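ok, trying the design again with the full structure, not the truncated one.
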C-alpha cells in the first residue's frame, strides 16, 4: 500500500495512492494506529496538497557515512559502527514545502535518502526481527548546513533547522529495501545516482542498532544515509529525491 497524508482544504486525512501515483482514495483514521476504512471519496493526487506522510511522534534518527563512496567524498572512512544522530521532529516538512535556508549558514547541501517509518513500539530488536517493526518507507532529504556541521562538531543544529527534513511523497508499506535505486536531481539534473544495496549497514542493522539505544515508537523515522554526490543547493533551486518503488519527493529551496 501507498499511504499518503493530505489535505483538500480542511484537516489532514490519509489516503491510499494507486500504483500510478495519480489517484488517492480517502480512508478514515490514522493507519499507523487504527484500522482504516475507505470513505468512498477519491481524488486526483494533483488536486490535493500532499503533507509529510508521517509526523514523527518522538524523533527522526539519522545515520551518517553509511555509503562508502559518500564517506570518501567527505574525506573519511565509512562508519565501521553505525554513526547515529537525532533530528528534531520540527524539522519535518512535506512534499512541495520549501526548504528555508536560515541566515546562520551559507553552505547547505541536499542528501537524498531512503527513510524508514517505524510501525510499532519496540526496544532491543535483533537484526533478524528488525524488518518486522517497520511500517513502510518513504523518501527523505537530509538537508545539512555543511559549514555548521564542520564548525559545531555536533550535527544537531546543522541538520535540525526547521524545514531541513522533507519527507514524502507517501509511505510505501510493501517494499524490499535491500537494492533500491536512489536518485537525487537538482534543477532536473541528476546529482546522486546510487543504490541502497551499497549501504555499509543495511536497513535491518540500522533499525536494530537504533532500537538498542532508544525505544522506537510508531511513526519514528530513521534516515539511512546518503550515497555519493552531495553538493550545495541554493535559493531558487528545486531538489527531487526519487527512490525506486516509492516515488519522488520534490521541494523548492528559499532563503529567509
Ligand atoms: Mg544524511
Amino acid at each position: 500500500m501507498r499511504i499518503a497524508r493530505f489535505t483538500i482544504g480542511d484537516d489532514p486525512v490519509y489516503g491510499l495512492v494507486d500504483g500510478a501515483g495519480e489517484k488517492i482514495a480517502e480512508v478514515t483514521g490514522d493507519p499507523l494506529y487504527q484500522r482504516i476504512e475507505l470513505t468512498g471519496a477519491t481524488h486526483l493526487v494533483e488536486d490535493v496538497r500532499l503533507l509529510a506522510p508521517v509526523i514523527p511522534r518522538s524523533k527522526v534518527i539519522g545515520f551518517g557515512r553509511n555509503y562508502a563512496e559518500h564517506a570518501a567524498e567527505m574525506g573519511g572512512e565509512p562508519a565501521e559502527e553505525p554513526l547515529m544522530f537525532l533530528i528534531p521532529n520540527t524539522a519535518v516538512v512535506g512534499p512541495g514545502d520549501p526548504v528555508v535556508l536560515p541566515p546562520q549558514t551559507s553552505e547547505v547541501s541536499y542528501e537524498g535518502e531512503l527513510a524508514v517509518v517505524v510501525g510499532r513500539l519496540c526496544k532491543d530488536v535483533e537484526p533478524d526481527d528488525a524488518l518486522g517493526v517497520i511500517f513502510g518507507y518513504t523518501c527523505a532529504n537530509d538537508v545539512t548546513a555543511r559549514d555548521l556541521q564542520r564548525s559545531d562538531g555536533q550535527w544537531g543544529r546543522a541538520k535540525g533547522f526547521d524545514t531541513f527534513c522533507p519527507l514524502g511523497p507517501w509511505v510505501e508499506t510493501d517494499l524490499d529495501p535491500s537494492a533500491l535505486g536512489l536518485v537525487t536531481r537538482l534543477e532536473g539534473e541528476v546529482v546522486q545516482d546510487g543504490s541502497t544495496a551499497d549501504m555499509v549497514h543495511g536497513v535491518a542493522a540500522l533499525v536494530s542498532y537504533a532500537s538498542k539505544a532508544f525505544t522506537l515508537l510508531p511513526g519514528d523515522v530513521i534516515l539511512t544515509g546518503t550515497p555519493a554526490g552531495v553538493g550545495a543547493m541554493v535559493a531558487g533551486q528545486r531538489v527531487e529525491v526519487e527512490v525506486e518503488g516509492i516515488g519522488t519527493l520534490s521541494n523548492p529551496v528559499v532563503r529567509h
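Keeping the full-length input from now on. Residues 2-50 form a domain with the SH3 type barrels. fold (CATH 2.30.30).
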